[in-house]
């Protein structure tokens, strides 16, 4: 195995083409430097320098070997840098899952922007998925963080849940509906229209919240087409296929033919939950959660 220190000595001598000046830059005497270069040549099996009393020049083999030696040392330096950054939590990979209804929020986009600016060497992956899907992906290690609307099952001891915010829910109504002319609407008024939501088997936290609100008012939602994304739900509202109950951030999704109105019922909110593994020790996970919290405080 080649001694990396000897490679560094070789590069310095090849830069200076003078053993005395190279030794001075290394703060060592010339004879030990000469011995180290001779030992490197013995390891390689060929001479690196032609030496005379006046000149030091690279041999043909030395000239060909020089770029490879430089590349090896650059890779070693890069590896050392990445290793220290991984240990400090400023490099690596972070996988974040998010519910469709969260993607439109300022919190989500601002957190991603701030995190990427603060940790440019981190490979960030974001993946949309239902809340229930995030639980299994966290446990399996396919996600590091989940951003969800639904609490995991209480018996799940592997996931830690932090509720960071509660976002008001609003009604999405076709603009030509009489309800669109009101300042706010009630669930009773909405219940006269088909309720567009995520598929029943999708595992949506938002669905569970809406269904609980309807049950609380002893209301039964009328069946309607389903959408797997918040954008498709709003598109169905615009097409006149029914109404929807969505987080307030959805109002940023401006769609011709859709009007948003506040709900009259108090407590009609959807939580913003951050999910992590309970035994998570990654500094990147901690940093991402802290950025979410800072973004919320700045609202």
UniProtKB/TrEMBL annotation:
<dbReference type="Pfam" id="PF00126">
    <property type="entry name" value="HTH_1"/>
</dbReference>
<dbReference type="InterPro" id="IPR000847">
    <property type="entry name" value="LysR_HTH_N"/>
</dbReference>
<dbReference type="InterPro" id="IPR036390">
    <property type="entry name" value="WH_DNA-bd_sf"/>
</dbReference>
<keyword id="KW-0804">Transcription</keyword>
<comment type="similarity">
    <text>Belongs to the LysR transcriptional regulatory family.</text>
</comment>
<keyword id="KW-0238">DNA-binding</keyword>
<dbReference type="Pfam" id="PF03466">
    <property type="entry name" value="LysR_substrate"/>
</dbReference>
<dbReference type="InterPro" id="IPR036388">
    <property type="entry name" value="WH-like_DNA-bd_sf"/>
</dbReference>
<dbReference type="InterPro" id="IPR005119">
    <property type="entry name" value="LysR_subst-bd"/>
</dbReference>
<dbReference type="GO" id="GO:0032993">
    <property type="term" value="C:protein-DNA complex"/>
</dbReference>
<dbReference type="GO" id="GO:0003700">
    <property type="term" value="F:DNA-binding transcription factor activity"/>
</dbReference>
<protein>
    <submittedName>
        <fullName>DNA-binding transcriptional regulator, LysR family</fullName>
    </submittedName>
</protein>
<dbReference type="GO" id="GO:0003677">
    <property type="term" value="F:DNA binding"/>
</dbReference>
<feature type="domain" description="HTH lysR-type">
    <location>
        <begin position="2"/>
        <end position="59"/>
    </location>
</feature>
<keyword id="KW-0805">Transcription regulation</keyword>
């Amino acid at each position: 195995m080649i001694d990396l220190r000897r490679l560094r000595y070789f590069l310095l001598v090849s830069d200076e083409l003078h053993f005395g000046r190279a030794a001075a830059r290394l703060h060592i005497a010339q004879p030990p430097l000469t011995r180290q270069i001779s030992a490197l040549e013995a390891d390689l099996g060929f001479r690196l320098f032609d030496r005379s009393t006046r000149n030091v020049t690279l041999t043909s083999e030395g000239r060909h070997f020089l770029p490879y030696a430089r590349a090896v040392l650059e890779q070693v330096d890069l590896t050392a840098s990445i290793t220290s950054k991984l240990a400090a939590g400023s490099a690596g990979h972070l996988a974040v899952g998010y519910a469709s209804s969260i993607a439109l929020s300022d919190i989500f986009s601002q957190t991603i922007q701030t995190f990427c600016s603060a940790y440019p060497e981190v490979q960030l992956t974001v993946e949309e998925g239902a809340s229930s899907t995030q639980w299994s992906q966290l446990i399996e290690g396919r996600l590091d963080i989940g951003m969800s609307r639904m609490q995991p099952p209480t018996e799940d001891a592997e996931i830690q849940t932090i509720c960071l915010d509660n976002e008001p829910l609003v009604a999405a109504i076709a603009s030509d509906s009489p309800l669109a002319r009101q300042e706010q609407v009630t669930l009773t008024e909405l219940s006269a229209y088909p309720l567009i939501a995520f598929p029943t088997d999708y595992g949506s936290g938002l669905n569970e919240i809406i269904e609980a609100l309807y049950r609380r008012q002893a209301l039964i939602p009328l069946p309607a087409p389903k959408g797997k994304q918040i954008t498709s739900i709003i598109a169905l509202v615009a097409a006149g296929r029914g109404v929807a109950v969505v987080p307030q951030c959805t109002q940023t999704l401006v769609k011709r033919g859709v009007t948003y109105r506040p709900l009259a019922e108090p407590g009609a909110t959807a939580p913003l939950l951050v999910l992590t593994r309970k035994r998570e020790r990654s500094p990147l996970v901690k940093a991402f959660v802290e950025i979410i919290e800072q973004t919320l405080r700045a609202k």
